Amino acid sequence: MNEKTELPNDQHHHPLGEHPMLANLRDAEPLKTFSTSQLEAVAAEIRDVLCNLLETRTAHFASNLGVVELCLALHCEYDFRKDRLIWDTGHQIYPHKLITGRYGEFAGIRTQGGLMGYPNPNESPYDLFMTGHAGSSVSTAVGLRSGDVLAGEKDRRTVAVIGDGAFPSGIVFEAMNNAGELRDDLTIILNDNKMSICPRVGSVATYLDRLRDNPFYTGLKSEVSRLLDRVPMFGDPAERFLAQTKEAVKAGFLGGMLFEELNIRYVGPIDGHDISLVRKYLAMTNQMQGPVLLHVVTEKGHGYKPAAEDPVYFHTPPVFHDLNGEPITKKSEGLPPFTQHARDAIRDQMAANKKVTVITAAMCQGNKLEPVREHFPDQFFDVGICESHAVAFAAGQCKAGSRPLVDIYRTFLHRRFSQIFQEVALQDLPVVFMLDRAGLTGPDGPTHHGLFDISYMRVFPNMVCMAPGYASEVSSMLDFAIQHDHPTSIRYPKASALQLDHEVSAVELGKSEKLRDGKDGTIVAFGAMVENALEAAELLEGDLDVAVINARFAKPIDSQMVKSAVEEGQFVITLEEGTGLGGFGSAFLESAVQQGLDTRSVKNLALPDEFIEHGDRNELLDQHGLSPRAIALLCRESVTSHTS
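Given the sequence above, the corresponding structure tokens read:
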């Protein structure tokens, strides 16, 4: 599609095509001297790079297409080597990376050892925080500005870019409440594209719709009009007539009043794809004192028609097959993922029992819940990116007699820790937590790996912690959880679910399942590590006879299983796809110690006490000793050490 061009160091050809303007940007400073037409040419190159990238791997796509012009305008009006910029959330960071000296490395983004798909301070001084969750940008920006004021560096300017989908998060309003009191200079850019990952929900979204649909607010206050007149126009004046209309005056009493009452000046809405217009308004807001919210309207997927028409599908689409012909390859036909089995189990429970509800926090698509939303609209609740509210909301439903299922990415569960404690576990309410993306999530990296839930969920009294080891076990565990009168959690990874040709034994509280007999030693696997345990046992056939146990429960753990495993073989190896600190292996050892067992033959295989970088899931498992080959090797070493 594109001819190859050499990178600035002339060492090799860039795999994503010829982009001479990007190739010559070692940082963003030259953009300040570019004309509007040159900036538009850079925007075209950025979109071409993004499309070419999707010929090789999945990546965040529609969100990045939507912020290209906004990103360029920001770097034209600020120097973010000194000034402060926080992207919320960080998956829309690709244009920013491309214009801040990382074009030469961009082809390796989201691969092991390559650029991260989120901001990463280790990559560039232009990245301040590793942001992978929504809603924290305004709080962080308020803190940055306050710290700079305290340090006597008031000339450093601070900008937070937050999407309309993340905007209803409770922490955003906590931050605006504080910003309005401090009154430090701060620019909040509300990037309004009518979307979260899925279509946004809630009354805040409705309020933003009213602001966006009212074209007569921008520029009506006398101060705004005066400042606009003082700022050079980079394109054709489009709004000067507004201040002279009766409709505009009327709108001035209504538009943006939510923010104005919080002592945050509201300006907008403006077209976020008009680079010259955005530059003009950024220059204007820089002359205002105190916190300012600039409402910028963008289109998710802008510049690529299929993505603009279906931004949900193109949030992280599969690899392109033919850019010109529009069809793209379907995802490879392999075993269905755990997420799909969980969705089907949820649907069956809702069909059988009207009291069963499902609650998600703006992750309907990621959790594959669209059919559930369609067929059971009265039992489906999307609360937006408001995870703390989702759990407290579930507790309220539960107290009123419903049986709510909180279906959420495991990494986002951190945001609701206090509500799990206070509103669910302390009240001993039978809320069911469906924890998707548990374990390693591959190219999304450390912001999204689900490594810590075993440790912190099992510390709560009344909580039951489960994990299915294979596909048909998912529905059995959910059926158990629905009937259990205490809080439960079920964790499963972003991975294909193992299919086992055997009848699933009934799920009983705190009881494991033996999948394979063996006299030499035992592998006890929690959750999806069952597949690797079975493969390791097969690799050892003819050498060692190893038993494999599907633990099922981290809490309460099967104490009889622990006793038998320790006493009957030469070694025990526990497996889990999570951190070893306080995880399943710890629970196993705690049980063994309480029973007075000799634990010297027990080895725990888990992920280390560090943040794991991005990369292919299987490669990461192998790197950290959790692949079948590595497990089999440890079994051999354990026998040798036991006999020596």
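The longest strand covers residues 572-579. Try to locate this feature in the token string yourself.
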